[in-house]
Design goal:
The protein is mainly β and about 475 residues long. The protein has helices spanning about 5-30, 260-265; strands spanning about 40-45, 55, 70-75, 80-85, 95-100, 105, 130-140, 145-150, 155-160, 170, 180-190, 190-200, 205-210, 220, 235-245, 250-255, 275-280, 290-295, 310, 320-325, 330-335, 345, 355-360, 365-375, 390-395, 405-410, 415, 440, 450-455, 465-475. The protein has 2 domains: about 1-30; about 35-475, Neuraminidase.
Length: about 475
Amino acid sequence: MPKVLRRQMSVLVAALILATVLCLLFAVDKKAGAASGASFKNFELAATPPQPVGTTCPGSGSECTNNAAEPAIRADRAGNFYASSENGLSSGTLAWKSSDNGLHYKTLPSPNIVSAGQNSTGFAPGGGDTDLAVAPQKNASGNYNVYVASLSLANVTVSTSQDGGQTFSKNVLSATVPGDDREWIAADGSNKVCVSYHDVATFNINVDCSYDAGATFTQHAVPGAIDANHAYLIDNNQIGNLAIDPRNHNVYQVFNGIANSNEAASGAAGQTNYHAVWMGVSTDGGKTFTDHRVYVGPKKESYNHNFTNVSVDRAGNVYAAWSNDRAIYYSYSTDQGKSWSNPIKINSSPANTAIFPWSTAGSAGKVDVVYYGTSYRGDPQTAPPSAEWHVYMAQIQNATSGSRTITQYQASPVNHRGGVCEEGISCSGNRDLYDDFGVAASPTTGLASIVYSDDQPGNSAQDDHTSVATQTSGPGIF
């Protein structure tokens, strides 16, 4: 073969190889929900009270049932999972713990209950909008503090366990500004914990911190997670969750809102689409914040869908996830929240419509994102009765690289049919799935456990309960 022809053939082969590699990378990046390689165990969690403390599920009989929704979950450094779910305002919060990689959960004492009868849930100063955090360092007794936050509307209750969930103490006045809504909680060190919340009077995002395991909250961010240069966002935002990087103690508060001050001037508060994702970043432990734009989308889009989410991996990379009511996207920052990548779509068929994202990050560039998904394409709130919803988990590897892979798994059976209202307490449609759910991954196995809301088999609020989907095989994120 002539030398010139050999050279042309070599170039052609190299081009073909490069094209094949790029096609494979693109195919993996969009891998569909039918992907094999991971399996999940699903079961319902127990309620407490009236189910006795220590009830282990899955189990037999009626003890492994509950009527709770909108759950949260975290994992400690030893691989224990802690989950909570709300029983309703003034009715207490349910809590569970798994010490066997999420295969069984036992009930814990209700974190905020102050009175209980044999046939009632008792009274609790809290019980709404639960969230949960676990300390990244052990306390003096050798345990990781567990914090459960719940809402009373008048204030925020933070319940603390310093003995692995056996007992809880309560601070019913954790918010330094009374009259609150949608609180979130995050922990740092062995005894620091912070809460964020909307105050009803101004709709500002407040961040308060405690240095004595939640007994007192003495640090109040000024002016809040919304800095003075972006004050127009105070009346035009929806709060997302709170996260703390234990490496450098940075505090991250994600939220969505309007894009600029002109939009605030052009419409009444709350009437402009929240088509921008923002990240409040504190580099002084939550005392002050600086706001950075994560993404500004088309004005016709709204990310005011519950809830924008933030997580941080062990290398300090920060991830924001959100929904435009049709799809789930994420963006990442490798410089502590100052600058952000272009958004990357996560969900794929058969999860054609996806809502309610939550994420957990593990080792560098590894993230699990969960969401409710259906094959129906369109407005979730007007989905037909034939639309079947499932819990999906997308695992992202090399999340901060162009060679990322996104593998989507269906993690649950049908957990809802038909429309899903996303307007909170203003909902006029079906709100059986409430507003959020959660995922955590064990640092010892890397595998995930997901707590979610389920209204089957009756597809009605009377059948609402909290279930768990625990990953039993496949790749992990640690």
